[in-house]
Amino acid sequence: MTDPINRGLPQEIVDLLAQPLDSALVRERARDDGSVFAYLEGQAVIDQANRIFGFGGWGAEVLGEPRYQAAEVVDAKTGEVLALGMYTVAVRVTVNGCPPKSDVGCGFITERTLEAHANATKAATTDGIKRAFRQFGEQFGNNLNERRPGTLATPVKLDEMRQRVLTLSTRLGVDETRTRAWFRERCGQDLDDAGERELSGTIRALAGELNEREAQRRKAA
């Protein structure tokens, strides 16, 4: 049954929105605590919108002026200044056949330069577009989940983290045997015996390497 909020969309578009998200579009990023969350990049969301709704079937606009708030964010462990302030931007996405969808995006500045402020404003706008499009469901990353900080890892979660280590290693071109040997050398214990701390640090390192390789690939393309 068609979602009432999208009832004006053609059936072929509704069918496209109901399809599973292509996993090749999903990117991963590690937090400092080792948890990994999945997301879609801004360009991927725009490409999805063009593919599903057509180049002339949607649009996005900024509502009002971007707002800036000075807010220094410091890494509690290292003392490194992670951000000096934040821009927020309200964005409205309009798709032919259904009511507009709006949300607020944010972008952080890390340097006291005009370029940093400009880039943060652009990042906030892109973030707003991504958030608004998530209201269309799985094709725009609405079902991508992240682990919430502060929750204890259950045995099931630890098994999932071990599998994540193996999966990330495979994506880096390293087989399970080599991964297990590398993990033993890195952490001083077998992968199957490792706890949350060791697994989190390893996931963070692997995800960082994977994202770095992807960034280099895009630059070379």
Describe the structure in brief:
With 221 residues, this protein is an alpha+beta fold. Helix content is 42%, strand content 23%.
Mean pLDDT: 84
Number of helices: 6
Strand order of the largest sheet: 3-4-5
Count of domains: 2
Q: Rounded to an integer, what's the Rg over CA atoms?
A: 20 Å
Order of helices and strands: HEEHEEEHHHH
Q: What oligomeric assembly is this protein in?
A: single chain
Largest sheet: 3 strands, antiparallel
The first-level CATH class name of the largest domain = Alpha Beta
Q: So, CATH architecture of the largest domain? A: 2-Layer Sandwich
Tally of DSSP β-strands: 5
* Poorly predicted spans: 146-151
Spatial separation of the terminal alpha carbons: 42 Å
Structural class computed from helices and strand pairing:
alpha+beta
CATH topology of the largest domain, which one? Enolase-like, domain 1
Shape: globular
What's the CATH H-level superfamily name of the largest domain?
DNA repair protein Rad52/59/22
Instruction: Please estimate the helix content.
Output: 40-55%
Strand content: 15-25%
